[in-house]
Amino acid sequence: MVQTSTAPLPSSARPYVGTGQRRIDGVSKVTGQARYAAEFPADGLLYGHVVSGGALASGEILRIDTRAAEAVAGVVRVYTHENRPRQPWFDSTYQDQVAPPGIPFRPLKDAKIVYSGQPVALVVAQSLEVAAYAASLLEITYREEPFRTDLAAEQSNAYVPPEKRAGIEPPPPDRGDVDRALAEAPVKVEASYFVAAEHHNPMETHASTVVWNDGKLTVYDKIQGVVASKEYLNEVFGLSPDDVHVISPFVGGAFGVGLRPQYQLFLATMAALDLRRSVRVTLTRDQMFTLTYRPHTIQHLALGAERDGRLTAIRHEAVAATSTFEDYQEVVVNWSGLGYRCPNVAFDYKLAKLHTYTPSDMRAPGAATGVYGLECAMDELAHAAGIDPLELRLKNYAEEDANTGKPFTSKQLRECYRQGAERFGWSRRSPRPRSMRDGRELIGWGLATGFWEASMQQTSARAVLSADGGLELATATADIGTGTYTILAQIAADAMGVPIEQVDVKIGDSSLPASPLEGGSWTAASAGSAVQKACFGLREQLFHHARAMEGSPLANEVLERIIFTGGRMEVANDPSRSVVVADVMAALGLEKLAAEETAKPDQDAQENYSGYTHSAIFVEVRVDEELNVVRVTRIVDAVAAGRILNLKTARSQILGGVVFGIGMALEEQSELDHRFGRFMNHNIAEYHIPVNADVRDIDVIFVEEHDDKVSPIGVKGLGEIGIVGTAAAIANAIFHATGKRVRDLPITPDKLLRDDVDGVSSGMARAG
Amino acid sequence: MNRFSYVRPDAVAAAVRERASDPGARFIAGGTNLLDLMKYDVEAPSRLIDITRLPLRDIQEIDGGLRIGALVPNSDLAYDPRIEERYPLLASAILAGASPQLRNMATTGGNLLQRTRCVYFYDTATPCNKRTPGSGCSAIGGINRQHAILGASEHCIATNPSDMGVALAALRANVRVAGPDGERTIPFSEFHRLPGDEPQRDNNLAADELILSVDLPAEHFAANYTYLKLRERLSYAFALVSVAAALRLEDGKIAEARLALGGVAHKPWRDEEAEELLRGQPAERASFEQAALRILSGARGFGENDFKIELARRAIVRALEQAAAGTPQSQSDKRVQ
Ligand SMILES: Cc1cc2nc3c(=O)[nH]c(=O)nc-3n(C[C@H](O)[C@H](O)[C@H](O)COP(=O)(O)OP(=O)(O)OC[C@H]3O[C@@H](n4cnc5c(N)ncnc54)[C@H](O)[C@@H]3O)c2cc1C
Ligand code: SF4
Question: Is this prediction's ipTM beyond 0.95?
Answer without folding.
Answer: yes
